[in-house]
């Protein structure tokens, strides 16, 4: 649109800034094809008035302001219409006499005359030559036409909002600078040779003074055979909301990405130990930190959870803040390397964080004693078997204060646990079979997700075989038999024991006592 305006009016290319502003002004008042409304109407709430739009680049005669008018002499001066005022209901003009700019409301427009259009004069001369040659052949009586030129009605009363006398090149410099964004220097040489070198040198000095003051370095001898890591300067301009520069900042940083990566030994607080057949994950150092922080010096225990110690019976209230701190610490441990405490932490103790009593505190201290005795337990992973193996179990209503059962599962790959969970069931199971089936369905969802996840690993050759085990023959029978039965229709509706699910179970479902794999169920307490 800008190019069309410049070409049709014959305006020079250095007026592109005014053309862009005028084009935006017009486009904001044109209906949008998707919204069926103009942007102006969406913003203001009412339709725009288009009666004052004029042809860009046309001739306009602008009235002199009152302080420059005289009884003798012209009352107007010739200008070119170049746009619309931003802060008032006026037009913008460029005076043809001195290329100055002004804003005025009282003007007369000649929308068919373009002072900068050289093609207009050449076409007029060609037309005169054709008329002369044709008159020598035959004479045609011309129709009498009025010589009065039609003028547009002036916009508003005589009022001149501004009269700005500026050089055209200076205006264009401001327009260009509005679109120019100077990038921050990338290197030290660019900073000290730029226009703002004085500011950058001061920022560098401030950074070095800060390093010396805070003593963030130690001078050491370079080990034999080692290469020092390089450093570089980072330069950044802090910009205020109005677009002006707040300050110049320089930072001396280490180029860490050039360092050769060594063998990982600790990642996210988990120690990695390599073995002959694989590797193991351990958090013994984190357990020591927990015991030291909360002052656990009691004797060690072998079992993490005893049901009789946790209930909702009213007892002596303990500190909620201390209880929550320990729960948060052991929950981090449970999520990373200790599936054996999932039932005690996730399904039991964490439920009383909002209002713990003496029984809950004693059970939590017992858990810390258990961690003290099993500090060196770790997850060990081998290369084989490359089978995704899952085990699920359920703990049917064993708490006198609760009527919800508990679901639990653990999945192993390469012999080590990679996913585990213990959570209260969201519905009431009326029998052991129902609670086992609910746990089986929960484990089946996790098995599907893990199989898809491992299948996306590029280094894995083929699809991963999945084996899911449950210790309830009745639950497996329901999963494989999708025939309608009125006694278990609520299970079919809620947990999807239909034809598609049953076909999926046939592929990887088997019977296995979870105690045969883990010695005891990690998702049941000891009564």
Automatic annotation (TrEMBL):
Pfam families with a match to the protein in the record: RVT_2 (PF07727), SH3_retrovirus (PF25597)
- A single Gene Ontology molecular function, please? nucleic acid binding
Q: Which SUPFAM superfamilies match?
A: DNA/RNA polymerases, Ribonuclease H-like
Q: Looking at the record's lineage, which domain of life comes first?
A: Eukaryota
Which CDD domains does the UniProt entry name for this protein?
A: RNase_HI_RT_Ty1
Q: Which residues form the Retroviral polymerase SH3-like domain?
A: 58-119
Sequence ranges assigned to domain Reverse transcriptase Ty1/copia-type in this UniProt record: 214-263
- Cite the InterPro entries for this sequence: DNA/RNA_pol_sf, RNaseH-like_sf, RNaseH_sf, RVT_2, SH3_retrovirus
Q: What is this protein identified as? A: Retrovirus-related Pol polyprotein from transposon TNT 1-94
Which organism is this entry from?
A: Sesamum radiatum
């Amino acid at each position: 649109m800008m190019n069309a305006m410049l070409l049709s009016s014959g305006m020079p290319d250095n007026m592109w800034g005014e053309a862009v502003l005028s084009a935006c002004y017009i486009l904001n008042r044109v209906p949008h094809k998707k919204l069926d409304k103009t942007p102006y109407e969406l913003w203001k709430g009412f339709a725009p008035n288009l009666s004052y739009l004029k042809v860009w680049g046309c001739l306009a005669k602008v009235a002199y302001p009152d302080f420059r008018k005289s009884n003798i002499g012209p009352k107007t001066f010739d200008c070119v219409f170049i746009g619309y005022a931003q802060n008032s209901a006026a037009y913008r003009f460029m005076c043809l006499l001195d290329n100055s700019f002004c804003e005025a409301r009282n003007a007369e427009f000649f929308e068919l005359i373009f002072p900068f259009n050289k093609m207009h004069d050449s076409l007029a001369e060609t037309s005169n030559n054709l008329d002369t040659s044709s008159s020598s052949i035959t004479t045609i009586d011309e129709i009498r036409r009025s010589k009065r030129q039609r003028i547009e009605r002036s916009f508003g009363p005589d009022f001149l909002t501004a009269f700005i006398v500026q050089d055209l090149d200076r205006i264009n410099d401001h327009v260009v600078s509005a679109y120019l964004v100077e990038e921050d220097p990338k290197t030290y040489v660019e900073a000290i040779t730029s226009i703002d070198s004085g500011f950058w040198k001061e920022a560098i000095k401030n950074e070095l003074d800060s390093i010396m003051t805070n003593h963030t370095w130690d001078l050491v001898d370079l080990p034999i055979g080692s290469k020092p890591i390089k450093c570089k300067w980072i330069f950044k301009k802090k910009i205020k909301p109005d677009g002006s520069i707040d300050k110049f900042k320089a930072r001396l940083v280490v180029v860490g990405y050039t360092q050769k990566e060594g063998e990982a030994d600790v990642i996210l607080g988990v120690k990695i130990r390599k073995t002959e057949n694989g590797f193991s994950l351990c958090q013994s150092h984190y357990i020591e930190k927990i015991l030291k922080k909360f002052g656990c010096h009691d004797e060690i225990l072998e079992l993490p959870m005893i049901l009789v110690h946790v209930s909702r019976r009213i007892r002596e209230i303990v500190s909620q803040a201390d209880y929550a701190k320990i729960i948060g610490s052991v929950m981090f441990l449970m999520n990373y390397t200790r599936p054996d405490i999932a039932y005690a932490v996730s399904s039991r103790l964490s439920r009383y964080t909002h209002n713990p009593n003496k029984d809950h505190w004693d059970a939590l201290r017992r858990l810390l004693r258990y961690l003290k005795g099993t500090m060196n337990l770790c997850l060990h992973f081998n290369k084989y078997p490359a089978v995704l193996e899952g085990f699920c179990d359920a703990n049917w209503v064993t708490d006198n204060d609760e009527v919800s059962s508990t679901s639990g599962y653990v999945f192993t790959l390469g012999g080590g646990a990679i996913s585990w969970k213990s959570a209260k069931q969201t519905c009431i199971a009326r029998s052991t079979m129902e609670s086992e089936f609910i746990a089986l369905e929960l484990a089946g969802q996790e098995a599907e997700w893990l199989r898809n996840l491992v299948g996306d690993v590029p280094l894995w050759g083929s699809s991963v075989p999945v084996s899911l085990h449950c210790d309830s023959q009745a639950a497996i029978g329901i999963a494989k038999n999708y025939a309608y039965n009125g006694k278990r229709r609520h299970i079919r509706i809620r947990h999807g024991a239909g034809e598609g699910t049953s076909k999926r179970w046939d592929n990887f479902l088997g019977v296995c006592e979870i105690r045969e794999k883990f010695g005891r169920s990690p998702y049941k307490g000891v009564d």
